[in-house]
Every structure is written in structure tokens, then in C-alpha cells.
Amino acid sequence: MPEIELKFQVPREREASVRRAMARASSRTQRLQARYYDTPDRRLAAAGLALRLRKEGGHWVQGVKSRGDGVMQRGEDEVCLPAGQAPPALDLARHAGTAAALALREALHGGAEAELVEVFATDVRRTLREVRAAGGALVEIALDEGELRGAGGVAPVLELEFELLSGPPSALAALAARWVARHHLWLDVRSKAQRGERLARPLDAVPAMKATRPCLRPAMSGEQALRAILASCLEQALANACELAAGSGTPEHLHQCRIGLRRLRCALRDFGGLAGDAAPPESAAWQAQLSELFRRLGGTRDRDALQEKLLPALVADGAPFNELPSPGGAADDPGAVLRERETGGLWLALLGYLHAGEAPAAPGDSRPSLRRQLRHTLRRLHRRVAREAAGYAVLDEAGQHRVRKRLKRLRYGVEFCSGLFADAAVGRYLAAVRPAQDALGERQDLLVARSLFEAQLAADPRAWFALGWLAAREPQVVARCSEALAGVAEAPLFWRRRGRG
């Protein structure tokens, strides 16, 4: 059965205050010792499954957890074993007849537990407290203190979990938001199984999560579709944000986190109308917060991108330097920004909306079909780009930057809706959009680099070389932008065709 929970990392400087908040007469403490199993080639981890035997007090529990939505909801099947078995052997037949059994069979390709080996273990002291939340919800709060052990390595555990026992999921997010504000917790969507797996490998970093296509169905209401789109965007942003907040992120995690934030902003701005009167009233405030978060994460990412793409070309053409100048002022540390309580509050506000109950339809409400609403949005986004394509070369820099942002919104919109239209037709349209996005991205890189080197002139005359080089490339890049945008304007509009489903 699914479990709905949120997990947070507790900063060491807040450990004492969290312990005090958990210390109530009704609180209880137990020791949990778990062993996690997988095949030597990690088939369960690849399928998003965690198989464990856990000793809870005096008895053992065999459990299977699945990834769920990757944020707030996970699948779980547990079997409490008879007392006296210490430690018991694994037996996958204990999950017979459940969704967990099917998932295990598919991941193991029909194999049995003979292939499974212990990969890592956990040993934690758990303090439990039950809290009544808004709407009569009952939430169990668990403070876990201990360690993960695998492949000779050890990683500390200091986490606070909120699990919904009964009531609306939105109440869970609201309660967690109060604890985040009070104790500066930061949301972590990585499970213990995922942390243990990287310890056992061992892995310093895991691949960044890229965008996934929302699962839209023709019969969905506009409100359901909006939530599905936002959930897809938030999953990408959070998966990468947690790696950065934990200090294990890479430049690619930062890049993909910013893409997730940009997609969230586009979803709220261009598809918020799908929900009609049920659209989140906080949408404008969320967009402003996402925009500010995106900006604060941008300085480091922009320099990383220039270092990777533009600097090698400069050096190859004889630049008298082999590194980029440092931007003026200190850039924000992405991990610190993503651990801020204001960031956590934003994540939880979005999660609260995603898991709120759907508003009842108004009497006589006869909104058009989902596909028809999406066609209208795509047509509007396309027309805005096509209208300025022919005159792109004569636009000022602000105007050219506006076209780039509109093109990104168009591409994200197409990707959001693509599941409801024929793949081949969508693919042909995106084949016209991608070259334009690449060209406009190169144009933006030139502008950012120019600003960087102009600020360096007084301190380093070698910046003149870079400025001359950038000026020489500009006409060619602008011409490529104009040509690629013309291709977008003339691309066959897939939403005019008969779609799937």
C-alpha cells in the first residue's frame, strides 16, 4: 500500500532544538537495525525498489519499498515475521499476491532470492511522536539518529520524517512547513536506500535527473493535467536540488535543477489557466519566488557553461589566457541557497497544492476537452515566436532575449503536451525548435561573456582580445538565430492533426 511521507535533513546546529520538540510524554523510542539486499548487478536499485529485513525492537519485518512519485508518495509492503527468528532468511514468497511481488519478479527477471546479497545496513535510534494537524489529519513524526554502513564506509543519519497516518496529504505539507520554518530543516527526497546504495558502490555523485514527460490522459480535467505537469517539473527540480543541498551535486545537477525551476515557472504561467477557478491563487507569488531562486542559482551555472563551451574556442584561436575572469562580487553557494528555509517553504507550498483535493466542478461547467485547451495554448505560444522570427536580427538585445525566453516556453509547452499527440509529428516539430534554441543559447552566451570581459578591462587589458573575438562572431551567430527561427515559424503544427488517445 502507498505511504505518504516527507523527509528532511536536520542541520547539526538544530539537533538539540529538534530533540526538545520531539521530547513529549507520549513520545516513544525504538532501535531499528536494517539490512538491505540486491543482486550483485543492482537490479532492484535500477528498478527503484528497496528490499530489506529490519529488526524493530524484538521482532523482524521484511519490507519492499518502491519509488512512487519520487517526492511524497512511495509504495510499501511489509510482512511482520513471527518472534524467535533472529535473523530470518529472505523469502520473497512473503509478498505473494501484492504489487510488490510483481515488481520484484519483473526487476529480477523471474529470478529468486538466491541471487540476493546484503548490500548495506542501517542502525538508527528512532524517536516517534504523533501530532494532530489541520483538517483532523494524524501525522507521525520520526527523528532518526544513527548511521548507514556499506563497503567499509559509514555515513551519519540525522533525519526527520513526517508520515501521514490519516487525513489529507496537504495537511502533511502544511505541518512540515511549520517545522521547516522553526528548525531550518531542508527537504531531502533521497531515501535511505538510495543513500546506502551510493555508499556501497561507492559513488561520489549520481547522474543528474533530466526532465520527464508528464503522464497526461485525454479524459483528465484541466486541474488534473496542471497538477501532473507541475509534479513532473517539481520532481526534476527537487531531485537535483537535494544533491546540491547535500554537497554531492555537480555542475550538471545545477543545470538540471535550473531547468526544473524554469519549467515550473512556464507551467504556472502558460498552463495555469487549465485549472480555471481551481488554479492556485498563489501562482504569481510562486512564480516570483521561483524566478528569484533561479537567479540566485545562475551565477555559478553561467560561468560553468562558458568555461565548458566558450573558453576552449577562445584558447584555440590564440587567446592570451586560459581561464575566464571571475565575476565581480561573491556568487551564492547553490547548496546553501537550497538549504534555506524559504526554499523549503516554497517546495512545501507547491507540494501542498499538488496533493490537495480536486475542486468540485461548478454547476453547468462545460469546459472544452483537455486536448482542445492544449491546442489553444500551443497555438498562442507558437504565434508569439513566429511573429518575431523575421525581425529577430534588428531587435535590440532585450528584444532578442525576450524571443529566447518565449522559445523556451514554447519548447517546454510542447514537451508537456506531447503525450496527447502523435510522437512522429511532435518529433518533427521539436526537430525545428532545437536548432533555434541552440543558436539563441549561443547568442546569450556571447552576451554574458561580453559583460564578463568588459568588467575585466580596467584590471586586465587582455580582455580586449576576447571582446574583439566575441564581436567578430556576433553577426554569424545572429544570422544563424534568424535562420533557425524561420524554421520554427514554418514548422508543421502537429496539434492541427488528429492526436492519440
Helix segment tally: 15
Number of strands: 9
What's the N-to-C terminus distance?
Answer: 29 Å
CATH architecture of the domain at 2-203: Beta Barrel
Q: Specify the helix fraction band.
A: 40-55%
Top CATH class of the domain at 2-203: Mainly Beta
What Rg do the Cα atoms give? 26 Å
How would you name the oligomeric state of the polypeptide chains in this document? single chain
Mean pLDDT: 92
Summarize the structure in words.
It is a single chain. By secondary structure, the chain is of the alpha+beta class. Among the domains are: 2-203, Hypothetical Protein Pfu-838710-001 (Beta Barrel), CATH 2.40.320.10; 325-331 and 370-501, CHAD domain, CATH 1.40.20. 49% of the residues lie in helices and 18% in strands. The protein contains 15 helices and nine strands. The protein has helices spanning 15-22, 43-46, 99-107, 169-183, 192-200, 222-245, 251-271, 283-296, 298-316, 334-339, 341-354, 370-389, 397-417, 423-454, 463-489, and strands at residues 2-9, 28-38, 49-56, 59-66, 73-80, 117-132, 138-150, 153-166, 186-187. Strands 1-5-4-3-2-6-7-8 form an eight-stranded antiparallel β-barrel, surrounded by four helices. α7 (251-271) crosses α13 (397-417). The longest helix is centred in the last third of the chain and has 32 residues, at 423-454. The radius of gyration is 26 Å and the shape is globular. The two termini are 29 Å apart. The mean pLDDT is 92.
Sum up the structure in keywords:
alpha+beta; Hypothetical Protein Pfu-838710-001; CHAD domain; 15 helices; 9 strands; 49% helix; globular
